[in-house]
Design goal:
homodimer, about 250 residues, alpha+beta, 60s Ribosomal Protein L30, Chain: A, 2 domains, five-stranded mixed sheet, 6 helices, globular
């Protein structure tokens, strides 16, 4: 029988800049009595990765540029300091709504607010995405392997909206130890029909599955997903980014 | 410890028009030795729902309209009979690529090809989405409850692409027995910051989690997802559709 388990990893406490996140995650698993196994995927919320990597900004120390101030007036007075941070983390603006701004980050992710968070951080504070989420995933993977001898995949997740569907889902912004896409193209179905457009974003589905136990309270900032079939190459979340040439929704 | 299980439901055999899908699913669970429990979500692939509901079309019996033929010339000779079906299932065209067409279906879902499948059906055959996927979910839920006495949620899933990310993820196109969105708005974080934009598409994340065991081979067309926290009202997949007023990517 095909079976997958998703186990919430809690008890990490408040994460601070400089904390050794890989070790803290392994210790939290040990306290829960859950050993990482080969083939497991350890899913880690971006928020604790960014905190450990010191990606917190004090909004009181941000001076909005003229462009940020102009955008603020356009976006119902959205905090110009936040907009300054968003512009600094972005390659381009993809779309603007009444008070919403969707951008392409320097990593290539298209999301609202460049993934910058204001919740669960503290007053006057904003939290930026990790500079290199694949690198963050790789470091956690290597530290977990050093401590446990186990080769687990790692995903760093963030919470993204979708253009035509309400509600957010978690997706992978960093990947280490497996390939994030399963490519069925070239295979044929039982009737001999060649599967033409079948590439599954397995890493994003694992991210969403993990969110089902992680939730939004901050108490469960990581999860182990066990039993997935995974492409065995050491992949990158960059593989999940749609190239401009096949993007029908590039925006302005 | 927060824990979720995803269990593949296989052994249903080839589904034909008129098959009693609710009963077949319950029987398959019984053969696997897995009892549906209250609070479980039974996730069912659209493909077997559409087959059971007789939504198969013989492409040889489709006569393309002038518009379908014109579109075919525009889209690298894409089968004009398929385009005729796509237009018939759609409210409007959202975008066109080289050989890709993204539409809004009569249900309101924005997806490629109006969700029409050519794989795993047989030569010359196309499979349309269920006319009323919420109704399909409700009928499966009621039949399962009648046979087992258990109140499970039901999701009908389909496989959708995403505009800025490669690879597909499964999403909910039909829902019964629970609410597909978890709304955190108005709650405050531990620092007193009010969560403003936090609505989670739990049904879509469950759909993606189920795909991790279902895959694309057709052998595992359903799954049980156990242990999720679910909004308790009897919801609809319509709740997942972003209204036009807050859609920044309406297309042409």
């Amino acid at each position: 029988m095909r079976r997958i388990e998703v186990i919430g990893v809690e008890g990490l406490g408040e994460i601070e800049s400089g904390d050794p996140l890989g070790r803290l995650l392994v210790e939290a698993c040990t306290r829960l009595g859950v050993d990482l196994l080969n083939g497991d995927v350890l899913v880690v919320a971006q928020k604790i990765v960014s905190k450990a990597e010191g990606r917190t900004v004090d909004l009181r120390e941000v001076t909005p540029s003229a462009e940020a101030s102009r955008l603020s007036a356009e976006l119902e007075g959205k905090d110009p300091r936040l907009l300054e941070l968003i512009l600094g983390e972005s390659r381009r603006i993809v779309a603007k709504g009444r008070s919403t701004i969707v951008v392409e980050t320097h990593h290539g992710f298209v999301c609202a607010n460049a993934g910058i968070d204001l919740s669960n951080i503290g007053v006057h504070r904003a939290l930026l995405l990790p500079k290199d989420p694949d690198g963050s995933a790789r470091r956690i993977r290597e530290e977990a392997q050093r401590l446990t001898g186990t080769a687990a995949g790692v995903i760093i997740t963030d919470t993204f909206g979708r253009p035509w569907r309400l509600g957010t889902t978690d997706v992978a912004i960093g990947v280490a130890g497996f390939g994030p896409l399963i490519d069925y193209r070239g295979q044929t179905d039982p009737y001999g029909y060649e599967l033409k457009a079948s590439v599954t974003a397995v890493a994003d589905q694992i991210a969403g599955a993990a969110e089902l136990v992680m939730g939004k309270t901050g108490r469960v900032p990581a999860a182990i997903v066990r039993g997935c079939e995974l492409p065995q190459h050491d992949g990158s979340a960059q593989e999940l980014i749609r190239p401009a040439a096949v993007d029908l929704f590039r925006g302005r």
